[in-house]
Amino acid sequence: MGKVLMKGNEVIGESAIQAGCKYFFGYPITPQSELVAYMAQRLPEVEGLFLQAESEVAAINMVYGASSAGVRVMTSSSSPGFSLKQEGISFLASAELPAVIVNIARGGPGLGNIQPSQSDYFQATKGGGHGDYNTPVLAPSSLQEIVELTDEAFRIADEYRTPVILLGDGMLGQMMEPVDFEVTKDNKEFQKDWATTGTVGDGPPKTITSLDLDDVRLEERNKQLQIKYKKIKATETKVECYLMDDAEVAVVAYGTVSRIVRSAIKRARDNGIKVGLIRPISLWPFPVEKIAYYSNKVKSIITVEMNAGQMVEDVRLAVEGKVPVTFYGRTGGVIPSINEVHEQILSMVNEVAK
Amino acid sequence: MKVVFERTKGLTNEETHYCPGCTHGIVHRLVGETLEELGVLENTVGVASVGCSVLSYHYFNCDMTQAAHGRAPAVATGLKRVLPQDRIVFTYQGDGDLASIGMGEVVHAAARGENITVIFVNNAIYGMTGGQMAPTTLIGQRTATSPQGRDIQSHGLPIRVSEMLATIDGASYIERVSTHNVKQVVRAKKAIKNAFKNQQEKKGFSMVEVLSSCPTNWGLTPEESLQWIEEQMVPYYPLGILKNSSVITEDIR
C-alpha cells in the first residue's frame, strides 16, 4: 500500500478499522466530523456497521451496548460533545467494558470555538465523569503516530477491559500528512467470555452492571479497579525524550504543541542552548518517573500547552520542587508560535543564570 | 403428584425486592413466561434500566446488561446491531426512566425502526427515589414533588407515550395494557408475546406499555391501588393496540 496522504480524522477511522474495529456510533461535531463521515463510508465496505446516533449521549450508550456484546467499538466527538459522553464513560469504566473514545478537542469552555485546544486535559486524565476511575489517555502528535496509537488504544482497552481515550485536537484532526498503515500491529486475540451475547452454548446467564447496593462489595469493586490502574501505570506509560541527554532545560509538551516545541528547541540548540523535550504520549498514566529522573539532571523545566495550565500540575507533582517549573500556554484555540516558545526557552535560561 | 403450576424458567429463583402489592412482579413473570414459551431464553439479552426495576437483572434468567438512566434503548441498539441475527434484545423500563430522562432515546429507537422490544411499566410516579412526580403523573395526583397535587399551570399535562410513539413511522407494534385484574393480565401477556414475536419476525420497534401499581408511593393498599389503576389511570391512558404495522423494517440490515 505504501504511504497515503490523508486527513487526521480519516486516519483515525482507517486505523480503527485496521485494528479490527467494525462498529462505530457517532454524532457530528466540528472539528471531528470527517471521522464520522469516513466511518459511514468505509464500515459497510468491511461488513461493519456505522450508526449516526441522535446525540453524543446515545452514541456512548450504543457503544456500551455493543461493547457488552464483546465487539471492538468506537465513538468520537469534540470537547462539548465529549462532556456529554462522560456519563457513559464512567459506566464503561465501572462495568469494565472496553471501548475507544476519541476527543478531537476544540477551544472552550462552553461552546467555545472550533480551533485546536488542549483544554480538555483535566477532563481526560482525571477521570472526567463521576466516581473513582481513570481512563488511559493516548495523545498522538502526528498522523503516523495516530496509526500506532489507535491500534494500541484497542489493545489496551481489551487487555484491561477499560475505556481508552484517544486525545487529539482540531489541528491533528484537520491536517494532512502521509501515513503508512503497514506498521506492526498487535494482533492479540482476546477471549471475551464475560460478554452478554445470550447464554446459548455458554452456560449460566451473565450480567453487566455498574451497580452494587452493598457498600462493602462496591468498595471491593473499587479496590479491583485501583489494582488494575496500578498495573496500567506500571506497564503502559509512554513517553518520548528528544535531545534530553545533555539538556539543562527541559520542555514538557504533548500532542500538537510538542511539534512546535521541537522546532523551537532546534532553533535554541543552533544558538548553543542545551534544551530538550519530554513528550508524554500517554497522558494517563503520566510519565512521572521519566520527569522525576530528569528533574535531577536539568536546571529548569518549562511546560507548554494550549490551555491555561493543566498538565503543568502533573509535571510539578513529578518534579516535587527540585527545579523551577514554569508554564507557557495559549488559550481559546490560539496556537503558540515557534518564536513564542523560543522566547520562553531563552528567558528561562536567563532566569536560571541570574 | 402432578405439577399443575410452576415457576417460569424465564425467571431466576431470586426473591424480588419489590414492595408488597406492586405489579412489577406480574410483569416480570409475563416477560419470563413469554421468553420461555417462545424458546428464546438462551438467545435473549435484556437491558435493565434505572428505577425500581434496576435490579431486574437478578430476576430475568437470561443475559442482562444494566443501562444508565433512560439510556436502555441506546444500549439495546448497540447490542442488537452487533449481535447475531437470531438474538432477542429487550429493555425493561419504568416511566421516570423512559418518559422523562430517556424520552430522546426511545423516540429515536422507534424512529429507526430498531428491532427491539420495549417493556414500559407506567405507574405514574418515580418509585425507587421515593414517589416524585413523573411525566405520567395524573392531574391532581399528590407526589413528593407535587405535594398539593399535580396542577396544569405549574407542571403541564401527563404524556401519553404510546399515542406519541404510535405516530412514528418506524414503530411497528405499540399496545397499552394493564395489570389491574386477571382479565387484563391475560391481555397483557398476549401483548408482550406479540411484541417479542414481532422482533422474531424482524418487524422493527415494538413497545408494550403496562399500567402498573405503586401502593407504597400512592399511599394506597394493594387492592385500592388496582382500583386506582382502573378508575384513574385507564380513563387517561386508554387500553388497546395503538399501532400494528405489518411492514418489515429489518430488510435493510
Molecular structure report:
The complex is a heterodimer of chains A (354) and B (253). Chain A has 354 residues and is α/β, with parallel strands linked by helices. Chain A has two domains: 3-197 and 209-235, Thiamin diphosphate (ThDP)-binding fold, Pyr/PP domains (Rossmann fold); 240-353, Rossmann fold. Chain A has 13 helices and 15 strands. In chain A, strands 3-2-4-5-7-6-13 form a seven-stranded mixed beta sheet, sandwiched between helices. In chain A, strand 11 (249-252), helix 10 (255-270) and strand 12 form a beta-alpha-beta unit. In chain A, helix 1 (8-18) crosses helix 2 (33-42). Chain A is globular. Chain B has a single domain (24-131, 158-247), classed as Thiamin diphosphate (ThDP)-binding fold, Pyr/PP domains (Rossmann fold), CATH 3.40.50.970. In chain B, helix 1 (24-37) packs across helix 8 (182-200) and helix 4 (95-101) crosses helix 5. Chain B has helices at 24-37, 56-59, 72-82, 95-101, 103-111, 152-155, 161-166, 182-200, 215-218, 222-236, and strands spanning 44-48, 63-66, 88-94, 117-122, 171-178, 205-211, 240-244. Chain B contains ten helices and seven strands. Chain B is of the alpha/beta class and 253 residues long. The longest helix of chain B has 19 residues, at 182-200. In chain B, strands 2-1-3-4-6-5-7 form a seven-stranded mixed beta sheet, with helices on both faces. Chain B starts with 23 loop residues before the first helix and ends in a 9-residue tail after the last strand. Classes of the chains: A alpha/beta (354), B alpha/beta (253).
Outline of this structure?
The complex is a heterodimer of chains A (354) and B (253). Chain A is α/β, with parallel strands linked by helices and 354 residues long.
